[in-house]
Amino acid sequence: MTAVARHYRSEVSLFAIWNEPNHPQFLRPQFNSKGKPVSPRVYRGLFQAGYEGLKAGGIKHPKVLMGETAPIGYDSIHPKKGLLHDVAPLAFMRGALCLNRHWHKARSCGALPAFGYAHHAYTTAAGPFEVPPNPDNVTIGVLGRLSRALDKAARAHAIRRHMPIFLTEFGVQSRPNKLLGVGTEKQVELDAIDERIAWENPRVAAFSQYLLEDDPLGGPPGSGVHGGFIGFQTGLEYVNGRKKPLYFGFPVPLTVTKASGGFNLWGGVLPAHKSTRVQVLAQVGHSKRYRRIKTVRTDKRGWWHLHSTVKAKHWRVLWKAGKHGAKHEGPPVRAYRFVR
User: Fold this and answer.
1) Contact partners, residue 284, CB within 8 Å, separation at least 6
2) Which of these three, 221, 249, 277, is where a domain ends?
3) Is 280 exposed, middle or buried (0-12, 13-18, 19+ CB in 10 A)?
4) Does 69 lie in the same domain as 18?
5) For 79-112, b where at least 16 C-beta lie within 10 A, e where not — what string?
6) CATH number at residue 104
7) Do 188 and 175 sit in the same domain of this protein?
């Protein structure tokens, strides 16, 4: 980390330690012979050493993210999975911050000087509406669990107050992944819903798309800890470079929510750097063509919302970057009833 600081301190303003340390593929051991998590304390030492290394490399007050946690795991060793499975992210957080199950901090531990908390809030094929039964697991649909956990940790003086959340890795698996994937049209819809959930949480400071291009197909979940390969099909493109519908939907995310008296539409123009206008199109009745139902103005960051009474089969948006700029036309999306 000292070498990293010396080489990159003029180019990099934010660092993170370590990738999915609650996952046995990236840090072992996760549990001891008594079935108790040990990776959290190992990680605490890694974070402290890395932070001091950045300071030794000339960065006086480094901004470092802690966590980078995988979304699903267990609080104690699983009787059937043995030692090779994840620690639940909130159980991992408590261990790394020397907190017990009641969020009380051990006197022997000081606060960690983390700038923010990084997390990978992946979901299963059930999508963002599934609620993990273990309250220490955090998928995108229960992101509020992470916000509340950070508040509890701050009250225990284990971290600073109002710590932001960085979703540094996220994506929706699509087919041809048969175990976790959804259709590519549904991938567009769920990805936008997930981004809306992140947008609605005021603690979220970043939302990162993983991947640009799909991995080759790999083995089932858990293969990596046995030396196998797990491929992610979360990309905007297939493994051969052919564009998925998400390639066109990602720059202009759109969600349509069934509501009393009509539909609530929410969306964004990610390439926009200031307020802009976007056309909202709808496929009404049996028509195969789309008609413009409204031109809306975004806020200065590119986000917008609209309530519409127009009943349609599909909706999409069209945005042009000025008279001679690029045109972005999102793929069709359906209406959902949000249950969270």
Assistant:
1) 291, 310, 311, 312, 313
2) 249
3) buried
4) yes
5) eeeeebbbbbbbbbbbbbbbbeeebebeeeeeeb
6) 3.20.20.80
7) yes
Q: Residue 286 and residue 300: Cα distance in Å, rounded? A: 36
pLDDT tens readout for residues 36-80: 999 999 999 999 999 999 999 999 999 999 999 999 999 999 887
Q: Which of 214, 233, 249 is the last residue of a domain?
A: 249
In angstroms, the Cα distances linking 216 to 1, 91, 226, 302 are 32, 32, 18, 34
Q: What is the pLDDT confidence band of residue 339, given thresholds at 50, 70 and 90?
A: low
In angstroms, how far is CA 57 from the centroid of its own chain? 31
Place of tokens 């976007």: 278
Average pLDDT of the residues of the chain:
95
Which residues, listed in sequence order, are joined to residue 144 by a DSSP beta bridge? Answer: none
Q: Find where tokens 């261990």 sit.
A: 95
- Spatial distance between the Cα atoms of 62 and 6, rounded to a whole number of angstroms: 12
Strand partners, 257: 264, 336
pLDDT digits (tens, 9 = 90+) for 305-325: 999 999 999 999 999 998 888
CATH number at residue 272: 2.60.40
Taking the complete model, does pTM exceed 0.90, yes or no? yes
